[in-house]
Amino acid sequence: MRSSNPVFSRRGFSRDNGQAGFNAGPQAGGPAVGTQGNPYAGQPTAAPTNPYAQNPYAQQDLQHGAPQAPVTAGGRMTMDDVVARTGITLGLVVAGATVAWIMDLALPLAIGAGLVAMVLALVQSFKRKPIPALILTYAALEGLFLGAISNYVNTFVAQGAAMQAVLGTMAVFVTMLVLYKTRIVRVTARFTRFLMIAATAFVVLTAVNLLFMVFGGGDGLGFRSGGLGIVFGIVGILLGAFFLALDFKQVEDGIAYGAPREESWMAAFGLTMTLVWIYLEMLRLVSILQGSD
Questions:
Q1: Are 241 and 172 in contact, with CB atoms under 8 Å apart?
Q2: What's the confidence (pLDDT) of residue 209?
Q3: Contacts for 167 with CB less than 8 Å, ≥ 6 apart
Q4: What is the pLDDT of residues 58-105, one digit of tens each?
Q5: What is the CA radius of gyration of the chain?
Q6: Residue 185 pLDDT greater than 70, yes or no
Q7: b/e code 98-126 from CB counts within 10 Å (16+ = b)
Q8: Distance in angstroms (rounded) separating the CA atoms of residues 186 and 23
Q9: CB neighbours (10 Å) of residue 292?
């Protein structure tokens, strides 16, 4: 089953072996070296499914138990590549947020930057190859949006909410990384299917609530305030945490199956979007909790 993650669904990072699961190889602790389900090399019962290149030596590699994609001019993706690119994108987000905070960027401008960032994210999500300039522009604009929103919440809604949201986001990231590496959380086909259903329902309810707010005034259906808002915020954070596990899985598969080095930009892009989601939900939850004191 191919991943439904909008960033990775076109990348071929899933172990698509025609079975109802992702457990064809190890989840953590080392790359998978089996012959089943490698999207970067030929399979013994089907044509090669490597989305980047056709390996003329795929069958020979399979016989020797080492299915790999051919080495490209830029080399293969490594964990160092992913960490470096993610550091750059997150660094731009932080830099943009700092600028917006210090300059006290007006909310209309920040919302405009956020909308442009969303459009850029959608464009990159449907591109077959990563475009670093587009990803970096997205990160910078997203940072401006987050900085202005955080400054507004911190000033007029809940003092110290921004720092608490940052610490909360870091805690969620570290916790999910530990749970994934220790295999307490396993990314299976069922996990992915239920996650996508839950995320779709969450987005639909958010959109409906927004429509009620725009046309009916007030807080819409009440998903963003009071007890219901707290529950909704916790659900949003949990969904973001589970998407982190899915991101980790995609990165691990890409490295194990010899994805080109440029794919590390897509990995950084996916991780950045997930962390932004978690931060926004965390900021909203903290503001609700402090406002109810």
A1: yes
A2: 78
A3: none
A4: 334 434 444 444 445 568 999 999 999 999 999 999 999 999 999 999
A5: 20
A6: yes
A7: eebbeeebeeeebeebbebbeebbeebbe
A8: 9
A9: 11
pLDDT bin (cut points 50, 70, 90) of residue 216 is low
Judge contact between 89 and 131, C-beta under 8 A. no
Q: Which of 260, 276, 270, 272 is nearest to 129 (CA)?
A: 260
3 state SS of 178 = helix
d(CA 252, CA 228): 36
Task: Please give the Cα distance from 160 to 259 (Å, whole number).
Answer: 42
Q: C-alpha distances in angstroms, 59 versus 20, 44, 50, 293?
A: 24, 7, 13, 65
**Any idea how long the chain is?**
293
Q: How many angstroms separate the CA atoms of 31 and 272, rounded?
A: 23
Encoded tokens for 111: 């919302």
Yes or no: say if 172 and 234 are a contact pair by the CB < 8 Å rule.
no
Dump pLDDT digits (tens) for 130-148.
999 999 999 999 999 999 9
Report pTM. 0.76
Give yes or no for residue 9 having a pLDDT over 60.
no
